[in-house]
Amino acid sequence: MGEREHGRREHVRVAVIGSGFGGLGAAVRLRREGITDFVVLERAGSVGGTWRDNSYPGCACDVPSHLYSFSFAPNPDWPRTFSGQPAIRAYLERVADTFGLRRHIRLDSEVLLMRWDADALHWEIETASGELTADVVVSATGPLSDPKMPDIPGLAQFPGKVFHSARWDHDYDLAGKRVAMIGTGASAIQIVPAIAPDVERLTLFQRTPPWVMPRTDRAITTAERWLHRQLPFTRAARRGLLWGIRELQVSAFTKRPNQLGLVESLAKANMARSIKDPELRARLTPSYRIGCKRILLSSEYYPALARPNVDLVASGLKEVRGSVLVAADGTETEVDAIVFGTGFHVTDMPIADRVVGVEGRTLAEEWKGGMQSLRGATAAGFPNLMTIIGPNTGLGNSSMILMIESQLNYMADYLRQLGVLGGKVALAARPSAVNRWNRQVQARMERTVWNTGGCTSWYLDEQGRNTTVWPGTTGEFRKETRAVDLAEYEVVRVRDREPVAAAGVAGTPAPAAAPAVGAVEEGAA
């Protein structure tokens, strides 16, 4: 794997960054395409991505287990309908073992800097464990990898314990402590019920209340698991049903948000079952359309808020004065520990500061006015760089694994096209193609609940543009990423050192002559 000449850096065909679902999926797909000259660069000491990092109490997935797994690596033995973090992390470890990925994975190898060499047509990569070069880089760092900590005056002087939900301190015992939970996102609604019975007092600081629907989680029976092992079509049928239901829901989010009123009524009924205090219900009831922020699933959150040792401060944290937390509404609370559930750097991913493209500009500088890429995969000015879970590939109601597999289809065909073109060659996304794609995406976004629902969410960047979510079905996205259209790219060769139109490259077959994309087996689609 790779080659190292005397006095020269190691060179590989493909370097994959990250070993979560996106990175491991890319590694499996590379092997299925016959490409074994690749490495997976992982900054931590083990694989798993966000499912390694997020180990807080109660951590679980809000997508059904049989839909939250690779179609090419089905798991008949999921323990629950909505599996917890330990089961999902164990699944990713098994994927790494089953598909022989360990020898490709470089742990403790955080990417510190990546620079495009326009003369050699490859990426120079500096990592925490050494340097290498790669013809193609696949960035699968994911949007939920770098925690976001708010800048709170006085926080540095807080005498107690402080940590983010994605960096849980398991050595610190919260039992008997006065704890503040900052934020009411997907992590917080799992943490609150998990720690409330043990702490002396739990104070939840809520800037904006979420819409919460019950989560119909249960143990998957031994009989069900036996059936899925013995009769694989039953497993595929279960996955297909879960997928189909969510595909049918998409139009309400993307075209007819007013249809979501019935869902709001169900969410309010879910709240009323546990929250009997009308004043508390009022503070927990959102003022925006359901779906504008991600709909959260929990059957334990509201009962936890009704506990006598749990307080809700319907205001954000403004200041810390010693051990006293001061909310924006003036409420003061003395605590021993602060847990931040304040999300991640989604629209300002730190990896973008470390990637330097053709013009010497970083990807962060290129995206200063908002993230955008061609089909969620390639950015103008960054040849032979692909992103898994790139701009506008997120989902509001279904499994991101479906989107990842679609992008793996696109990655596979991208590499095939490079092979068809032959020689030392790079593909550079045309700015016109990137702009056209993003105009289409943003035009579709105008009608969606994420843009019209009356909320401010992490889906939006600083300019208020939704650069995160895909405004369509997973089936539509799969169709759009089934194959690379060479007309959307410029072909760059060493001998040219200048981009040329794909159609004008001597000896280059027309796009129609390129190999067809071999679709990943997908029981749902």
Description of the structure:
The chain has 525 residues and is an alpha/beta fold. The chain has 2 domains: 10-146 and 346-493, FAD/NAD(P)-binding domain (3-Layer(bba) Sandwich), CATH 3.50.50; 155-340, 3-Layer(bba) Sandwich (FAD/NAD(P)-binding domain), CATH 3.50.50.60. The protein is built from 14 helices and 21 strands. The chain has helices at 21-32, 50-53, 85-98, 188-195, 222-230, 232-254, 261-274, 278-284, 301-305, 363-366, 400-421, 431-445, 449-452, 474-480; strands spanning 10-17, 38-41, 105-106, 111-117, 122-127, 130-139, 161-164, 178-182, 201-205, 212-213, 296-297, 310-313, 317-321, 324-327, 332-334, 337-340, 355-356, 385-387, 425-429, 489-493, 500-501. The strands form 5 sheets. Strands 1, 2, 3, 4, 5, 6, 17 and 18 form an 8-stranded mixed β-sheet that branches. A 5-stranded parallel β-sheet has the order 7-16-8-9-12, covered by helices on one side. Helix 1 packs across helix 11 (400-421), helix 5 packs across helix 6 and helix 11 runs parallel beside helix 14. The radius of gyration is 24 Å and the shape is globular.
